[in-house]
Amino acid sequence: MSVPQSHRAGPGAVGLVLARPARLLGVEPFFMEFIAGIEESLVERDMSVLLHVVTTHEAEIATYRRWAGRGLVDAVVVVNLAEGDQRPAVLRELGLAAVLAGTWEDEPTVPTVRTDDAGPVREALSRLLELGHRHIARVTGPAALLHTRSRTRVLREGCAQAGVEPVVVEGDYSADAGARLTAELLRRAQPPTAILYDNDVMAVAGLGAAKEAGVEVPGELSLIAWDDSTLCRLATPALSTMTVDVHGFGVAVAESVLECVDGRPVTPRSSPAARFTPRGSTAPPARSPGAAGAAGA
């Protein structure tokens, strides 16, 4: 569809719709870093990011229909891909150029910049097992998200190979969820000696909950966050993380978007791989009769 330039959001725009509570954007650094990476590449083309926050995927799809009808964007970036996700099919129907960013299990019908969920989970689990942890929990993001499902599956597989039964609880990336779920885990008859979180905000809140419960980190409990940020580095103790180059992820997505906009073949790309960054929140578990027996098994 051709529309007058004056109807567009500036000289050119890339749309990004986030279906999530707006309150999370103020405390979660991930998307701000991701958008900064996209904008860094777009600025050379005098293009911008048109950001819209909604609460559901249905509202997100309605936004795509409105943008396509008015010609407001040249392309869109689709994030937080979910089980049974209808957005790629809708975008094809609308003829709206798009790039999927993240985990996508089906054959790509639109260009995709993929993330590796398996490798980082295996590395984090390996570090914990090497330290002697056998009571491991994971605080996830929303269970419907494909990257959440992938990380949980890989954790369960790795724990099964090690003869460990993990505890997995679902959060929503918020500080409230991180604090509440950590407190619940620590009240279990057999509390975990290590917890992996799906983002930095929940991990920092979990650290606070452990302190409130009188549980020493890392002496009695090791914590690992996903996505490094200033929050993790300024915590006491500083949090060990699966460090992701979120800015670089945004740059890779923008490169694919520009190829789409230009009508060129889109180069297959992946997000920079996450890597384990050890800090003060991970250590061998405190020795107890049960822990010693499990470690020696």
Descriptive tags:
single chain, alpha/beta, Rossmann fold, 2 domains, 42% helix, elongated, disordered N terminus, disordered C terminus
What does this structure look like?
This protein is of the alpha/beta class and 297 residues long. The chain folds into two domains: 5-115 and 245-273, Response regulator (Rossmann fold, 3-Layer(aba) Sandwich), CATH 3.40.50; 118-243 and 277-296, 3-Layer(aba) Sandwich (Rossmann fold), CATH 3.40.50.2300. The protein is built from eleven helices and twelve strands. The protein has helices at 22-25, 29-42, 57-70, 87-94, 118-131, 146-162, 175-186, 200-212, 230-234, 246-261, 289-296; strands at 13-19, 48-54, 75-78, 98-101, 112-114, 136-140, 167-170, 194-197, 222-226, 240-243, 269-270, 275-277. The strands form two sheets. Strands 2-1-3-4-5-11 form a six-stranded parallel sheet, sandwiched between helices. A six-stranded mixed sheet has the order 7-6-8-9-10-12, with helices on both faces. Helix 9 links the parallel strand 9 (222-226) and strand 10 (240-243). Helix 2 crosses helix 10, helix 3 packs parallel to helix 4 (87-94) and helix 7 (175-186) packs across helix 8 (200-212). Mean pLDDT is 89; it is low at 1-10 and 288-297.
